[in-house]
Amino acid sequence: MLLIRPITTADFAALKQIAVESGPGFTSLPVHDERLQHKIAHASHSFNVDVSAPGDHGYLFVLEDCITGEIVGTTGIEAAVGLHTPLYHFQQNTVIHHSAELNVLNQLKTLTLCNDYTGASEICTLFLRESYRRNHAGRFLSKVRFLFMAEHPQRFSDIVIAEMRGATNAEGKPPFWNWLQNLFLTIDFPTADKLIGVGKKAFIAELMPRHPIYVGLLPTEAQQVIGQVHENTKPALKMLEKEGFKHRGYIDLFDAGPTVEARLQDIRSVALSRRVPVTIKEVRGERTLAVANTALSEFKASFGKNAQFDEQQQQLQISAELAAALQLAEGDFARFINLD
C-alpha cells in the first residue's frame, strides 16, 4: 500500500535524495540542505497553524511505501505565491501597428515581465520514482492535492496555478534560455536554476528586460518553444487539462513552459470529490478510488480497490487495512474521488 502523509523532519534524507534524482530544472527541490530543511519546517508550521485565509503557507507531502517504509515520491501545494519572494512570468500579448495612410495593419506578439499570479495557490513539487510510475500512482500523487484542497478550501486562493516544464533541445537545454542568457543575464542555466531554487530571485528584477519584447525579434528556435512543454511533462499537462486547467498566455521566464490555471471550485477532482461517512468491511470494488481522511496535520490518503461507494446507503465502504492506514474509525468521514 502507498500512503500520502505530511512531511516530517525525519524525511530530510529521503527528500534530499528525491532532490538529487529529480535533476536540474526542478527548482522547487534544490539540492541544498538549508533550503530543504526550511521547506520541511515551513510545511510543518503550515500543517499545524490555524488560518482563515490563504497566506505564506506551504503543504508538502511524501508518498510512503507502507511495506518497505521507503519514501518514493513527493507532492506539494503553495497556498499563496509571490507574497514575500516575487513570482515572475512573461505574459504573451498582441499589439497592433496600424497605418491608415499605407493601409497596413500588423499584429505583433510581445512578451512582458509581470507578477500577475501574486497570491494564487500553486500545485508543485511533484516527483515519483520511476519504478513506482504504474498502477495509478502518478495520478494519485497529482490528484491527492485536490482532495486536501477540497477539504480545506479556506487555506487556498480562488485561483490555482501549475508551472509546466518547458521544451528542451537534444542537449537537454531550453532553447528559450540561450537568447535570454546572451542578451540579459550572462550566467549559465545551472547557476540561474540554483539561485532560483534557493530563493535568490533579485537578479530577475535587476537584469531582465523591463519593456515588452517583440517575439518576432527572437531566434527561431526560441520562438518555436514558447508555451510548449517538455516531452516528459506532456502526460502531466494532459491530466491537468482534464481537470479544467487552461493556459492563459503566461510562460516561464527561462524555458518558456506554460503556466496553467483553474478556479479552485471548478477543478474537476475538487468538484466531484465526495465527503461521506465510512463503514469498515472487507471489500473489493470495481473502481480504483483515492481516499483521504479529513484531518489537517494528520492528513493521510491512499488508493486502491479496497474501497467502494454504496450509493444507496451514501457510505464509503473501506477495508480494515485501509481504515487503519488512514486512521479512520467506523462512522468517521472521509473524502474520495474515482481515479479510473
From TrEMBL:
InterPro entries per UniProt: Acyl_CoA_acyltransferase (IPR016181), Arg_succinylTrfase_AstA/AruG (IPR007041), Arginine_N-succinylTrfase (IPR017650)
Sorted UniProt keywords: Acyltransferase, Arginine metabolism, Transferase
The UniProt record lists the keyword 4Fe-4S: no
Gene Ontology terms for molecular function: arginine N-succinyltransferase activity
EC number: 2.3.1.109
Pfam families: AstA (PF04958)
PANTHER family, per database record: ARGININE N-SUCCINYLTRANSFERASE, N-SUCCINYLARGININE DIHYDROLASE
Name this protein carries in UniProt: Arginine N-succinyltransferase
